[in-house]
């Protein structure tokens, strides 16, 4: 049963071969068994999930249908869920239970999905290893001494270990794609504005975008389809047709795939490079055509990203003041003491570092030199993609320069950690949809292939990923000890 | 580039113990040295990118759509009284 895809699970539920209560109970049991090792879940909503599963089973008996009716999933703990704690992996929100659902949560509920729990993450989604979580790091299911990636490390590890068939996640500079690559699962960050950010706790508002991590592209498409669309509650959400599945099978013959020379450079591990060559051979065998492209401003991506993301984070996180919700210091002597001590006690080191960097970049006298310059560099990075897409339909690239690194390896070197995002940040700056799919192994650890498409071309990404997965088995590999 | 860490921390309402302050100073200075590579690029004539889709702010009708959730929102803190948030005394 646990080997099944979402489409197959839905079929089994429809045929009465299994009930949603059985499916959800099984998920919760395995999550509990695995959590002392993986630490991928921060909360399990057992009672609520079983109640909703029973309701889904009754609804099905009444003849009701829903694309995800009775299917269990997990939400990243940055996504607000009414009545279930939303901690953002932070002491600051250790006691925060949102009074409302994020729009994407409501949409998935309407589609029939059942939230079994919330997944671990880097604190406020700031990190590339899941080590900044107040609740401890997540172990990579492929090697428990290594990081799962971040910030959506809990979601990626949970799907890789087959604890849930799908999990939501968010990506600001690579936080879906990088952990998906490190854990050998399929992850997509859609176009900026595709999925409402209402109820997704803000980190960097011009970059944040929610997406999905699943075992394969078809499942990811099914779920993302239910989350996408214009939302009056998020003025940056976009009205655009949503159909990720109807053309997923079509041939990729004649598709032009750009290969950016700046991504296949000395920084890239040679074994990863070899894996990706084989993956690209598979795409050409299916009729795709590879075209060398130039993205000359790629090197400006990391400096631009870390200035913009930190600036926006310092502004967004100013809301945590100890007054209305979240951590509050004991016995404040005055208002300033309340703000300062609540924030100092509630935030971890990486969040403080970024708030400090962002506050500096936005401070009087430095704004033009840092924040404004970063936004100009961002334009150049985005223009590179725009020019490339005049010649190619899609871009293929590595997701990460190396495979999952050992826990602790970069924890004390923030710049080295930031540089590990070098291949994911550019598409984030440009707001482009981008995906990571399993494409082999190096040192017995998963390797991801990144596909980047023009704005709103998610269907094309799913199409290529699905065609690739029809003829390869990397996405079906699972870590030892994974139950499914 | 070296920042005045105690001044920036004060602006951000963060209290940093001396040992942390030195560490943050070093790390942020390192990051600023790294981002200084943007100075090498000719960006004078480039329009800053404020929004990834260059989107315009969408406006809505000026109608009340939110329901009153005062009790639910106040329930998020243990420090409220008579429908108000409690903070340290501001006016002597």
Structure explained in plain terms:
The complex is a heterodimer of chains A (484) and B (92). Helix content of chain A is 38%, strand content 13%. Chain A is an alpha/beta fold. Chain A has an 8-stranded mixed beta sheet with strand order 4-6-5-10-11-9-7-8, with helices on both faces. In chain A, strands 1-3-2 form a 3-stranded mixed beta sheet, with helices on both faces. In chain A, helix 8 links the parallel strand 7 (256-260) and strand 8 (289-293). The longest helix of chain A has 21 residues, at 368-388. The N and C termini of chain A lie close together (8 Å). Chain B is mostly helical and 92 residues long. Chain B has helices spanning 5-11, 18-35, 70-74; strands at residues 80-81, 84-85. Chain B has a two-stranded antiparallel ribbon with strand order 1-2. Chain B starts with a helix and ends in a 7-residue tail after the last strand. Chains A and B meet through helix 9, helix 10, helix 11, helix 12 and helix 13 of A and helix 1 and helix 2 of B.
Outline the fold blueprint.
The complex is a heterodimer of chains A (484) and B (92).
Chain A: H1 6-15, H2 20-38, E1 41-44, H3 46-61, E2 72-76, H4 103-110, E3 114-119, H5 153-160, E4 166-171, H6 177-183, E5 186-189, E6 209-214, H7 217-227, E7 256-260, H8 270-285, E8 289-293, H9 301-316, H10 335-346, H11 349-362, H12 368-388, E9 394-398, H13 414-419, H14 425-430, E10 434-442, E11 445-452, H15 458-471
Parallel strand pairs in A: 2-3, 7-8, 7-9
Antiparallel strand pairs in A: 1-3, 4-6, 5-6, 5-10, 9-11, 10-11
Chain B: H1 5-11, H2 18-35, H3 70-74, E1 80-81, E2 84-85
Antiparallel strand pairs in B: 1-2
The percentage helix of chain B is: 25-40%
Instruction: Determine the number of helices of chain B (DSSP H or I, runs of at least 4 residues).
Output: 3
Share of helical residues of chain A: 25-40%
* Helix/strand structural class of chain B: mainly alpha
Mean pLDDT of chain A: 96
- Spans where pLDDT lies below 50 across 5 or more residues of chain B: none
| Main sheet properties of chain A | 8 strands, mixed
Q: Give the amount of beta strand of chain B, in percent.
A: under 5%
Could you tell me the radius of gyration of chain B in angstroms? 23 Å
- What is the CA-atom radius of gyration of chain A, in angstroms? 21 Å
Annotation, overall tally of beta strands of chain A: 11
Summarize the helix and strand pattern of chain B as letters.
Answer: HHHEE
The largest contact between protein chains, plus residue counts on each side, is: A-B, 67 and 50 residues
């Amino acid at each position: 049963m646990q080997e099944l895809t979402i489409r197959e699970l839905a079929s089994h539920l429809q045929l009465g071969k299994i009930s949603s209560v059985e499916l959800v109970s099984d998920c919760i049991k395995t999550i509990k068994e695995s959590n002392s090792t993986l630490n991928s879940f921060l909360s399990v909503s057992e009672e609520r999930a079983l109640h909703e599963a029973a309701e889904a089973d009754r609804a099905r008996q009444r003849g009701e249908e829903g694309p995800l009716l009775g299917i269990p999933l997990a939400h990243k703990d940055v996504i607000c869920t009414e009545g279930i704690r939303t901690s953002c992996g932070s002491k600051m929100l250790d006691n925060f239970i949102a009074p409302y659902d994020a729009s994407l949560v409501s949409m998935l509920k309407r589609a029939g999905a059942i939230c079994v729990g919330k997944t671990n993450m880097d604190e406020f989604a700031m990190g590339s290893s899941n080590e900044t979580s107040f609740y401890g790091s997540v172990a990579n299911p492929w090697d428990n001494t290594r990081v799962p990636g971040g910030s959506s490390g809990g979601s990626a590890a949970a799907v890789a270990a087959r604890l849930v068939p799908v999990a939501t996640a968010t990506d600001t500079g690579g936080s879906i794609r990088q952990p998906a690559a490190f854990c050998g699962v399929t992850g997509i960050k859609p176009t900026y504005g595709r999925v409402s950010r209402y109820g997704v706790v803000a980190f960097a508002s011009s970059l944040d975008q929610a997406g999905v991590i699943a075992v394969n592209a078809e499942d990811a498409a099914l779920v993302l389809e239910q989350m996408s669309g214009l939302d009056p509650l998020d003025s940056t959400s976009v009205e655009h047709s949503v159909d990720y599945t109807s053309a997923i099978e079509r041939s990729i013959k004649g598709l032009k795939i750009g290969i950016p020379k700046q991504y296949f450079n000395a920084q890239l591990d040679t074994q990863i490079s070899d894996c990706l060559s084989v993956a690209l051979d598979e795409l050409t065998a299916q009729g795709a055509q590879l075209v060398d492209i130039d993205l000359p401003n790629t090197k400006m991506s990391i400096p631009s990203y870390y200035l913009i993301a930190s600036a926006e984070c310092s502004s967004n996180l100013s809301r945590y003041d100890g007054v209305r919700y979240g951590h509050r210091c004991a016995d404040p002597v005055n208002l300033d003491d309340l703000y300062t001590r609540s924030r100092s006690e509630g935030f971890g080191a990486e969040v403080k570092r970024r708030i400090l960097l962002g506050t500096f970049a936005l401070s009087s006298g430095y704004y033009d030199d840092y924040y404004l310059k970063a936004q100009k560099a961002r334009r150049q990075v985005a223009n590179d993609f725009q020019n490339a897409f005049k010649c190619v339909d899609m871009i293929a690239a590595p997701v990460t320069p190396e495979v999952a690194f050992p826990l602790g390896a970069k924890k004390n070197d923030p710049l080295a950690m930031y540089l590990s995002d070098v291949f994911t940040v550019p598409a984030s700056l440009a707001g482009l949809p981008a995906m990571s799919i399993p494409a082999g192994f190096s040192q017995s650890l998963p390797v991801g292939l990144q596909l980047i498409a023009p704005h709103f071309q998610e269907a094309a990404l799913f199409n290529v990923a699905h065609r690739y997965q029809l003829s390869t088995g990397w996405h079906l590999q699972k870590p030892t000890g994974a139950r499914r | 580039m070296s920042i005045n860490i105690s001044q920036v921390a004060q602006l951000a309402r963060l209290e940093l113990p001396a040992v942390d302050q030195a560490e943050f100073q070093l790390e942020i200075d390192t990051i600023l040295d790294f981002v200084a590579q943007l100075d090498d690029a000719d960006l004078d004539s480039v329009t800053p990118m404020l929004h990834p889709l260059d989107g315009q702010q969408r406006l809505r009708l000026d109608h009340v759509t939110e329901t009153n959730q005062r009790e639910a929102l106040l329930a998020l803190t243990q420090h409220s009284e008579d429908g108000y948030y409690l903070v340290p005394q501001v006016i002597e």
